[in-house]
């Protein structure tokens, strides 16, 4: 089969990426993104909206946009979310406008989403890049969940069950990064390497949201 030629000038300027960081609960998605911010990465880190209660040390507008259920539903009706879902009894959503503005400004966008949300974003934006953050073992993942001590025993059992199910969704993703205990910077380096490689991809991903 003859390859379709791509004008070389179009290859000299890569387009901004829409990157979805996903994985099971407790794998360290928040910690990974916080470390990338701390290291001064120039990506746009999307702030998710949620109806769940704010945890100690979380900041509204920084860690999440904490919304009332009524406000969240109003945004759903107005089509203001790129994707949204109900998870563990609370609503989570990715505001569409901030993603559009960052991409229009030429910035690579990183979105944190659960596995269900990642699949939804891929359907809406087929050129989105999906990265699965995985633990080094399921035993390590369960240990992390227990150490958080933020859920009741019943809620913890549900999270562990769901995490096992989410690990089975790995084939939906294009890359996997292992976030092992004590090796956070290795996971950050792996994500950076994935984005660098995608910048060299031909043809470039052209994301529309």
Walkthrough of the structure:
By secondary structure, this protein is α/β, with parallel strands linked by helices. The protein has one domain (12-199): P-loop containing nucleotide triphosphate hydrolases (Rossmann fold, 3-Layer(aba) Sandwich). The protein is 40% helix and 18% strand. The protein starts with 7 loop residues before the first helix and ends in a 10-residue tail after the last helix. The model has no long low-confidence stretch (mean pLDDT 88).
User: Could you tell me the mean pLDDT?
Assistant: 88
CATH superfamily label? P-loop containing nucleotide triphosphate hydrolases
Q: Going across the major beta sheet, what is the strand order?
A: 2-7-1-8-9
Helix content: 40-55%
Shape summary: globular
| Beta strands, count | 9
User: Which structural class fits the helix and strand makeup?
Assistant: alpha/beta
Termini gap: 32 Å
Please trace the helix and strand order, writing H or E for each element: HEHEEEHEEHEHEHHEH
The top-level CATH class is Alpha Beta
Strand content: 15-25%
Largest sheet: 5 strands, parallel
Give the C-alpha Rg: 18 Å
CATH architecture field: 3-Layer(aba) Sandwich
Identify low-pLDDT runs: none
Number of domains: 1
Q: Report the total helices.
A: 8
CATH fold group: Rossmann fold
């Amino acid at each position: 089969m003859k390859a379709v030629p791509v004008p070389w000038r179009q290859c000299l300027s890569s387009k901004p990426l829409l990157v979805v960081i996903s994985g099971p609960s407790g794998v360290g998605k928040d910690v990974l993104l916080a470390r990338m911010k701390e290291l001064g990465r120039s990506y746009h880190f999307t702030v998710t909206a949620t109806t769940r209660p704010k945890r100690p040390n979380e900041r509204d507008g920084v860690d999440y946009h904490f919304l009332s259920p009524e406000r969240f539903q109003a945004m759903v009706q107005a089509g203001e979310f790129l994707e949204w879902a109900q998870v563990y009894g609370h609503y989570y959503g990715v505001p569409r406008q901030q993603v559009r503005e960052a991409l229009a400004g030429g910035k690579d966008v990183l979105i944190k989403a659960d596995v269900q949300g990642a699949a939804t974003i891929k359907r809406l934006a087929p050129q989105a890049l999906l990265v699965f953050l995985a633990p080094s073992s399921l035993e390590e993942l369960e240990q992390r969940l227990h150490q958080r001590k933020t859920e009741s025993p019943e809620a913890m059992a549900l999270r562990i069950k769901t995490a096992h199910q989410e690990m089975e969704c790995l084939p939906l993703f294009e890359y996997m990064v292992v976030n092992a205990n004590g090796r956070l910077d290795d996971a950050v380096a792996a994500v950076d390497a994935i984005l660098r490689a995608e910048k060299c991809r031909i043809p470039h991903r052209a994301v529309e949201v």
